[in-house]
Amino acid sequence: MTEVVERFGGSVRVRVLKDRLVRGACAGAALVALVPLFSVLYYLTVRGLAGLDAAFFTELPKPVGEEGGGMANAIVGSLQLVGLACLFGIPPGVLAGIYLAEFGNGAFGRVVRFCADVMSGVPSITIGIFVYALVVLRTKQFSAFAGGLALAVIMLPTVTRTTEELLKLVPEALREAALGLGVPKWRATLRIMLRTAAPGIATGIMLAVARVAGETAPLLFTAFGNRFWSRGLDEPVASLPVQIYTYAVSPYEEWHRQAWAAALVLVGLVLSLNILARVLVRHRVRT
Amino acid sequence: MAQPVQSPSVPVSRAPSKRARGEGNVGDAVFRWLTAAFAATVVVTLLAMAAEMVGASWLSIREFGAEFIVSRDWNPVTEEFGALPFIYGTVVSSLLALAISVPISFGVAIFLSEMAPDWLRNPLGFLVELLAAVPSVVYGLWGIFALAPWMRDTVEPALREHLGFLPFFQGPNQGYGMLTGGVVLAIMITPTISSVSREVLRVVPRTFREAALGLGATRWETIATAVIPVARSGLVGAVILGLGRALGETMAITMLIGNRPEIDVSLFAPAYTMASVIANEFTEATEDLYLAALAEIGLLLFLVTVLLNVLARLLVWRVQAQGGAAT
Amino acid sequence: MIARRAFVLIAMCSVLAFGCSRKDAGADVAGAAVSLNGAGATFPYPLYSKWMAAYNQLHPEIRINYQSIGSGGGIRQVIAGTVDFGASDTALTESERKKSAAPLHHIPTTIGAVVVAYNLEGVQELRLSGDLLADIFLGKITKWSDPRIAAQNEGAPLPDRTIAVVHRSDGSGTSAIFTEYLGRVSPEWERSVGVGKSVRWPAGLGAKGNEGVTGQIKTTPGAIGYTELAYARQNGLSVAALRNRAGEFVVPELSAISKAAENAELSEDLHGSLTDADGSGVYPIAAYTYLLVHGDARDPVKGEALAKFLWWAIHDGQRFAAELDYAPLPAKVVTRIEERLRSLKAAGKPLLSEL
Hints:
The complex is a heterotrimer of chains A (287), B (327) and C (355).
Chain A: H1 2-7, H2 12-51, H3 54-58, H4 72-103, H5 107-120, H6 124-139, H7 144-169, H8 172-180, H9 185-213, H10 217-220, H11 240-248, H12 253-286
Chain B: H1 9-19, H2 22-64, H3 67-70, E1 74-75, E2 80-81, H4 84-115, H5 118-133, H6 136-163, H7 178-202, H8 206-214, H9 219-248, H10 251-256, H11 274-281, H12 288-326
Antiparallel strand pairs in B: 1-2
Helix pairs in contact in B: 2-12, 4-7, 4-9, 5-7, 6-7, 7-9, 8-9, 9-12, 11-12
Chain C: H1 2-22, E1 34-40, H2 45-58, E2 62-68, H3 71-80, E3 85-88, H4 94-99, E4 104-118, E5 127-128, H5 130-137, H6 147-152, E6 164-168, H7 173-185, H8 187-192, E7 205-207, H9 209-219, E8 223-228, H10 229-234, E9 238-239, E10 241-243, E11 249-250, H11 254-262, E12 273-275, E13 285-294, E14 296-297, H12 300-314, H13 319-323, H14 331-342, E15 345-346, E16 349-350
Helix pairs in contact in C: 5-7, 12-14
């Protein structure tokens, strides 16, 4: 502590000035960090709104270079892919999370936890290669199924770890009360623990869904794209992110217009999931 | 996080007594094995990923060996493949992103955890995290129509005029290149670094701050002497997590970096990253060796990001363990 | 309680995933629904997307989904069997041909031109000889005001701007055609860069697809790049006149492209090169573009739908070509393709028996 006291020496004026400067710099950093956000939101609103019309939601894409058309198939395709991702990603993730919270302090639990953490850092493009080799090459078909699976793999570690963390926050007394009443452990876990933690888990899942809804890279090799409605999950499917990418790098003004509209819809979807997730958290904290 | 995690050993150690009851016994065993099976899917998926990647790149590993990561030839015509230009592009663009993002992110984290008035803290934190919610491809779109023209017409000419004596800021200003790629990455990793740093700063016990303030330190002196030293390894961890995200980022940078596999010292020049070359060429490499070379780039990316994540998490855990122990 | 909620959640996801895909199944009219998937060249994409849309209107039960991912991608995916047909602007190489389990046939669909497009305000016309063009793409000429460019363009207001070369970043048939041309007119190009779908570009920016290159040229002042004529036209880019073998500077126009095909002979497998062709008024970088189809289809229903579509494309479909700046196939070529289409089979049975 003497060292600390020595460091506080020096002219008070200089010290206060320095303090003010640093405070100013930190506040400035916060402002600078927000500039891109507002710029993105500004462009999205101005250009996106200009690009939105009824046809955007109801029509299929027009042939290259023609005016009009929409992205109805990509909007539905994105919902489909996210639905599949939830289907493949959430149940295993939640169950794996339950394992980690309930039985996970052995060696196997540590390995699972480690793998989940590692997996959450794997670039999504790598997951695309993986699913391409695993599913697309074997089924000889680009498909919604493959795309949904790729997104599920991205979601899996997040869902697992969120479930674990939140289950661990549930007071142990709740479980003990149930066990004391003679309820078997598995029922106590599912009915008491999971239910208590459910809002928090739902929040975590929603954030994970929001993240995968905007993923593009892994879909390039899996869900591919489709100019029409896809007739089944074993067919390639259009999605908003891939469509935005294709349209953004194209030279056509019409496509740029639609890319902005699609981006507005996508960001609107993702942000509302985010905000909803946060409102859920606040609600839970209050009650 | 602030609340130390309860030890799960309690329920496990109680298990034997429950075994005595028939119904609970079977149900619990089934439950345990069922959840364990799903927990295993996490491990299996990761291993399968590693195995598929190694399998897909085997041809290239055998053909080029270690030469692959030091050779700068990427020539599909002659089937010579070296990953150096992509490694260079990935590393430099990520470092550039860190150089821009770290000061800003730390500023944001310190402001949010130490200085901001209460009413501002949550909304501001939320806004910064919203930056992370915007999909990569939307940053790419914005980059093409807003960032790249601005870089080309304003930033790059200004840099050349004032710092043009440095080799980094020479050459034509095209708007698409390493610098623009670095800037967009910086925007995308700022929320990661700032929110993890904020978490790390938050677990530094209040008593440390109070002690320093009690000794007459200003806010900044408190932060510099009592908070940051404790949090240091966690802050490093936050930076590494940001780096991991930057290395693996694909869409936005593919749309902005210019996609040319050459090593050029100028930051205005187009470059290429590992993730971008996969995004561009993976579906269309027709020769086996070409495909294997791309897969090997994916494997390298996989390994590097895995290592970085492990390192970062160890560092962040350390601070959290210390913070937890001190309270 | 929690179980019920979980069940509801899972059911919702399923409805989302499965329900949507069946949504319009009832909308299909008589005839078996067929979905064909194809991928490949971006060079003919404007024409193909028009064809697929028009054909879907004629036959609502048939949906042909074409994704323009580049010729390299088309070849690779059709060989891997992940799509029903591929598309490429260059013929398969020997090693690609060997890799395919079943024989693949080239079906020429149209003739297009690779044009040199540029973005220079105030410069309406630009004339470039082959060696000059090669030197620009080799990075040896870096300024628009270079005396060698000025010598071929007297009076043009060439600015003192850096040339931003734009090339393809993906495996591209357009690149193959363009580099084949550069290789023919410049020994140095042939020696130091070579010819192929993906080459090691000595200079410039990479962009994905003809779409990407055109977009990049359009948004980058001082840019020069190569793209398919339709893309340049649709986007109002200026294109350079190139010097042909006869020494004339020729702008890419349909007549000049058709002329390139007049004297060219197609191989037994219906492919051939049109670059740097002989003759007066010939545009020097023209090319056939091909669909790659299996000689013996895996699925007879899909095979038949594809064969019928191709028949339509080389006859009725050709009338869409000119308005999109592609040159229609010469009559003698159409006859040869008809013969080839009649030979397409599924499980040993000809697919077009009634034609």
